[in-house]
Amino acid sequence: MRLVNIGYGNMVAASRVVAVVSPDSAPVKRMVQDGKAAGKVIDATLGRKTRAVLIMDSGHIVLSAIQTAAVNDRLTGRETAPTEEETL
Asked: Hey, is 6 helix, strand or coil?
């Protein structure tokens, strides 16, 4: 099982990620709110702004504080170096 860093030391199993989407659209915001009500949201932002939403095959929703492009690069193996803020 390959784990992928989604920011600030948080990891997810790459094979379990179904989609990585931007949190800005109304349908995604609704999905996150419904997931919170159902107890299916995992907040990995450490209090920072949500910049990517990962949809998992288990129905869980993972919130990440790094950009969707950076998450995608990490999932596809084009690893980007952690930002200075992430290493703190």
From this structure: strand
Residue 7 has what pLDDT? 92
Whether the pTM exceeds 0.85: the reply is yes
Give the E-state strand segments of the chain in sequence order: 3-7, 10-13, 17-21, 41-43, 52-56, 61-64
Tell me the CA distances in angstroms from 14 to 10, 17, 22, 55, one per residue in order: 12, 6, 18, 11
Q: pLDDT band for position 85 (50/70/90)?
A: low
Please give the Cα distance from 30 to 25 (Å, whole number): 9
Q: Which SS3 state, helix, strand or coil, does residue 54 take? A: strand
